[in-house]
Amino acid sequence: MSVQFESVREGDTVLEARGVSRKYGSETILSDVSLRVRAGEVTTIVGPSGSGKTTLLALLALLLEPSSGEIWIGGRNATGLSDSARSRLRNTFFGFIFQSAQLVGSLSVLDNVLLPAILAGKPREKSGAARELLDRLGLGPRATYLPHQLSLGQKRRVAIARALLLGPSVILADEPTNDLDARRASQVADFLLALPSEGYALVLVTHDRALAERAGNRWEIQEGRLTPPEHVPASSLAHFGNRALRTNINGAT
Amino acid sequence: MLRLVVQSLLRRRWQSLATILGVALGAALLMAVFLLYRGFDQGLERGRQRLGADLLVVPSNATVDPDRALFAGSPLSVYMDKKFADLARKVPGVRRVEAQFFTQSLHLECCSIGIETRLIGIEDQVTRRLAGMSPDGRERLEKDEVIVGSELLSGIGRPGALIELLGEIFKLAYRLEATGTSLDYSILMPMASARDLAASSEALKPVWQESGDPHGLISALLIEVEDVGRIKEVGRALEDLGSLKVIRAADTFQRLKRLMGAFVLVLAGAGVLTALGGIAYLFGHFSSVAWDRKGEWALFRALGATRPRMVQLVVGESTLLALGGALVGLPAGYGLYRLAFVRLTAQNAFPFVAPGGVLLTGATLGALVLYALIGFLSAAGPALRVAQLEPALTMAQGDID
Q1: Is B303's CB within 8 Å of A91's CB?
Q2: A46: which strand partners?
Q3: What is the C-alpha separation between B139 and B256, in angstroms, rounded?
Q4: Residue pairs between chains A and B whose CB atoms are closer than 8 Å
Q5: Between β-strands A170-174 and A94-97, what pairing exists: parallel, antiparallel or unpaired?
Q6: Which positions in chain A touch B296 (Cβ < 8 Å)?
Q7: Same domain flag for B159 and B99
Q8: What burial class does residue B60 get, using C-beta atoms within 10 Å of its C-beta: 0-12 exposed, 13-18 middle, 19+ buried?
Q9: Staple partner for B391: which of A76, B30, B188, B301, CB 3.0–4.6 Å?
Q10: B108 in the same domain as B36
Q11: Considering the domain boundaries, does residue B53 fall inside one?
Q12: What is this structure's pTM?
């Protein structure tokens, strides 16, 4: 299922932030952040509301440009790339799972999964893969449904299928179990945490204590500064919530 | 990509339908006005060619509507001595004189089209001039042959077919091309035949008792001058021949053209305003869409849509809406034109030639291209704004379904 860069092997660094900072006006949201994401591993980022988690994810995903520092992808500096090049990387190198499922209401479940392929202009050749993914996620019979006919958990699984469609190297998941009940959250977690074994690099931003504990390799972000796993105390999962981050992103745009 | 565009339009089906209808209105009006204008323009031009004359001379007691006489080809039931043809030929500055003889109106029971059918006696030189409008370039009519207007006797359209007129049998020489005038409902025959027919008709005897032997009469003279700059002078000389009324074709032609021009200007203005309204509406629609659907667009950007692709998406929607409107509006415009055409030709008030298939096809294709362009231009601004959307927006928004 997974389509990786030929040169990438398990343990290779596929995504790296080098001294990345991000400011909104005079406010510094992230300061001198460095992080390596490796193929076949989970990278978990935890932190309280407003600490810069989602901003960091947006920078890693090339959704935002850093104010300073560099983002390296597959051993190449991606900072300052053209918009087209960044778009192509977002399309093929990354798979996104956003906080809310973010499905397009006018498209069927199948077409929502196919969306990255449609935007890349190759929906037909990925149609079979999309159906396979839906089957794998238990959504095969609902391929023709519209999003409003699905439960929250089903929508989240459609979003996961969409993220995996083009066989990205890195899956970026922002609060993937948000709003789900414990059973659904556990199902989603099971699926996501199995992905690294298939060669995917998984970057997980969460304030779900159970998920963070299961995922391991936990980086903590506090007031825009990132602490590596070896320095993160076990008591760090006490702070949750991220509404303030939304405000920051909005302020940037 | 087309799938995204179509699904998006279908999802907002009422909004899309309203937009399509708004665009269709403008397209219908433009198409109808264009076809009417072309039909009139062609009719006028063909009328002028057919006339081939600068002056029309009729008896001074004739009640003549110059427009109808010259361009609608309306025959006049008036008569004057045929000597005026010879006298007119001797007037200095006259190059060519053609005499015509009209009978009273006839009625063909077998082929009635709801208006009167007329017989026109023409000279050989007229037959030669009409040769260009005959299928085989015939320059001469036998005594028992007739030329039939395009709208008459459609059931016996083949040359050689027999036609009975006032008890006499004639053969169809050919059918005239459509002129958009009452000639389309007239039958032309050699001058001598028309006079013989008129003289032998019991029904027409009272006319000849009043006007004299039809063999010595003509109804009108069509005159071409040597120098158009001296047309007034020639006209005065013709009037001096006695009891004649002279109508200048150029004046009437220009006046008709101005009249129709004003009419078309009003309609075209309405059509253009409606089309501009369509552009403004589409622009407003997509400007608002750029804001309302920024969540969806931002998601597309986040998932890898390039800026050009975003432009394609927005412009694609707009172009499809505009083309949809045109596809609905163009047939409606054609229907509107047909309605006006039927009314106009029934009145014979204007010379009018129905545009042919080539013009119709060209107009349709041209309108489709025009509306595709309108769709493109009206959404270009909003599309560029959408393309600038920050993909990070998608990280901060809730569900978009």
Answers
A1: yes
A2: A220
A3: 31
A4: 111
A5: parallel
A6: 104
A7: yes
A8: middle
A9: B301
A10: no
A11: no
A12: 0.64
**CA distances to A116, A218, B55 from A243, in Å:** 28, 21, 89
ipTM of the complex: 0.85
pLDDT tens across the length of chain B (401 residues):
777 777 777 777 888 888 888 888 888 888 888 888 888 777 777 666 655 578 888 888 777 665 555 555 555 678 888 889 899 999 998 988 888 888 755 554 444 333 456 788 888 877 877 777 777 777 888 888 988 887 776 666 678 888 877 778 888 888 877 766 667 778 888 988 988 888 887 777 887 888 888 888 888 888 888 887 788 888 889 888 888 888 877 676 667 667 777 777 787 787 778 778 777 877 887 788 777 788 888 899 999 998 888 888 888 888 888 899 999 999 999 999 888 887 776 665 566 777 788 888 998 999 899 888 888 888 888 888 888 877 777 666 655 54
Residues B71 and B35 in one domain: no
CA–CA separation, B306 and B286 (whole Å): 19
Q: Would you mind telling me the total number of residues written for chain A in this entry?
A: 253
Name the β-bridge partners of B248. B55
Q: How far apart are CA B60 and CA B240, in angstroms?
A: 11
Please judge whether B299 and A104 are an interchain contact, meaning their C-beta atoms are less than 8 angstroms apart.
yes
Q: At a CB cut-off of 8 Å and minimum separation 6, what does B284 contact?
A: none
Give me the residue spans of the domains in chain A.
1-93+170-176+199-253, 99-167
Amino acid sitting at position B49: Q
Q: How many angstroms separate the CA atoms of B340 and A163, rounded?
A: 59
When scoring B303, B309, B314 by the number of chain A Cβ atoms within 10 A, the one with the most, hence best to mutate, is B303
User: Are residues B78 and B144 both part of a single domain?
Assistant: yes
B395 interaction partners in chain A (CB closer than 8 Å) = 54, 57-58, 63, 98-99, 174, 246, 249
- Residue B125 CA, chain-centre distance (Å), reads 28
Separation between Cα atoms, residue A221 and residue A46, nearest integer Å? 6
Residue B384 CA to residue B250 CA, distance in Å, equals: 54
Query: How far apart, in whole angstroms, are the C-alpha atoms of residue A58 and residue A246?
Result: 11
Cross-chain residue pair A116–B307, CB shorter than 8 Å: no
Phi, psi of A33 (to 5 degrees): -90, 130
The parent domain of residue B326 ranges over: 2-45+256-396
Of B243, B219, B247, nearest in space to B79 by CA: B219
Q: Distance between CA A179 and CA B311 in Å, rounded?
A: 34
- Tens-place pLDDT, residues B34-93: 888 888 777 777 666 655 578 888 888 777 665 555 555 555 678 888 889 899 999 998
Domain total for chain B? 2
Q: Are B233 and B276 contained in the same domain? A: no
Q: Do A90 and B394 touch (CB under 8 A)?
A: no
Q: Is B248 contained in some domain?
A: no
Homologous superfamily in CATH for domain A1-93+170-176+199-253: P-loop containing nucleotide triphosphate hydrolases (3.40.50.300)
* The domain boundary residue, chosen from B193, B212, B242: B242
Are A63 and B399 in contact (CB < 8 Å)? no
Q: Are residues B290 and B148 part of one domain?
A: no
Chain A contacts to B (CB-CB under 8 A): 54, 57-58, 61, 63-64, 83-84, 87-92, 96, 98-107, 111, 115-116, 118-121, 123, 146-148, 155, 162, 174, 245-246, 249-250, 252-253
Residues B112-156: tens digit of each pLDDT: 333 456 788 888 877 877 777 777 777 888 888 988 887 776 666
Strand pairing report for A76-77 and A68-73: antiparallel
Q: B113 in a domain, yes or no?
A: yes
